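Task: sequence design from structure.
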């Protein structure tokens, strides 16, 4: 079997491009036009590869790397081998990410799966749908009446775009996704299997549970990324909103009427209950659970596996179950550990008697 490489690096990137991206000058004597043909981890990088290092755990790997050029933080620069050109900068990982996007532009968002552009054979587009020039629709995709899709957007195979859904320009709608009752901005990425705009979970409880019609929408603003198999329910009476630049991982559940601010980060396994608001720049670690009707303040960070059951002030760092400020959480954990240790000592002394 051939060793297939799914992403082919672009040509034309040089050592001087790396230095320019980092905002620094190349070390004296380095050939600025020396080409870069790929990017690789420290352990496997070769003389024509770009690498980066910004974590003390990889100090040994840095000292033994064969990378031609390496983005590195100031505290680790001295550990670069003589054969590796160090490009010293404050944020090596961010610079590396920007250069990786230039090397492998086709890895930035899902592209056509059928290898063509325009409407593929087997795509089902309703006559009343409006597609701008430059839209690609892969086989098996269904686009309903009144849907509107902007130029440069790719709709993957077997995706379903419901009636009246609007999708902006340069978006990527992954294979097998479903979008209904939703308005998406520009440059939105929806990874395969995501479900957006389905019913929220709303029932008037009683001897028999009466379904509450969910008549809101999902609004997804510009530059949002939504991970595979994530679900975002449409609003019950008001809209569910995902703010500009927010990044959502795989397997996240966002319930009806939730409002998420700009540039939030939501990691895999998170569940956010209905009518909760996340202000701008909030970070939720993996498997965080948030109960309904809460407000998590701007810039707050919640540690993974925590359970949030009350409002969180802006700029806070909370963790635990139930979640609390991290200092209180750490004191609680330390106290429990000491009690357990004392109990263990007491039990051991009792066994001696």
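Answer:
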């Amino acid at each position: 079997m051939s060793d297939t490489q799914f992403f082919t690096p672009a040509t034309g990137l040089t050592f001087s491009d790396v230095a320019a991206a980092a905002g620094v000058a190349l070390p004296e004597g380095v050939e600025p036009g020396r080409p870069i043909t790929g990017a690789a981890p420290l352990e496997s990088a070769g003389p024509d590869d770009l690498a980066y290092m910004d974590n003390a755990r990889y100090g040994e790997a840095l000292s033994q790397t064969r990378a031609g050029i390496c983005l590195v933080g100031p505290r680790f620069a001295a550990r670069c081998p003589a054969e590796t050109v160090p490009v010293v900068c404050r944020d090596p990982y961010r610079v590396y990410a920007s250069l990786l996007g230039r090397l492998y532009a086709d890895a930035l968002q899902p592209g056509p799966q059928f290898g063509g552009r325009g409407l593929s054979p087997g795509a089902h587009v309703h006559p009343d749908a409006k597609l701008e020039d430059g839209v690609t629709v892969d086989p098996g995709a269904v686009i309903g009446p009144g849907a509107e899709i902007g130029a440069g957007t790719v709709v993957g195979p077997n995706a379903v775009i419901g009636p009246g859904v609007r999708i902006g320009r340069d978006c990527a709608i992954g294979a097998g996704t479903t979008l209904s009752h939703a308005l998406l901005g520009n440059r939105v990425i929806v990874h395969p299997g995501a479900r957006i705009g389905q019913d929220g979970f709303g029932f008037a409880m009683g001897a028999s549970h009466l379904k509450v019609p969910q008549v809101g929408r999902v609004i997804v603003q510009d530059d949002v990324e939504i991970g595979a198999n994530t679900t975002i329910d449409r609003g019950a009476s008001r809209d569910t909103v995902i703010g500009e630049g927010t990044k959502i991982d795989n397997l996240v559940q966002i319930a009806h009427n939730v409002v998420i601010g700009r540039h939030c980060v939501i990691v895999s396994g998170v569940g956010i209950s209905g009518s909760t608001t996340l202000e701008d720049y909030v970070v939720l670690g993996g498997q965080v659970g948030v109960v309904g009707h809460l407000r998590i303040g701007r810039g707050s960070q919640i540690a993974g596996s925590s359970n949030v059951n009350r409002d969180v002030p802006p700029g806070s760092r909370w963790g635990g179950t139930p979640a609390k400020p991290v200092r209180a959480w750490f004191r609680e954990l330390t106290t429990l550990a000491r009690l357990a240790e004392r109990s263990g000592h007491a039990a051991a002394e009792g066994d001696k008697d």
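Helices lie at 15-22, 59-64, 92-103, 326-352.
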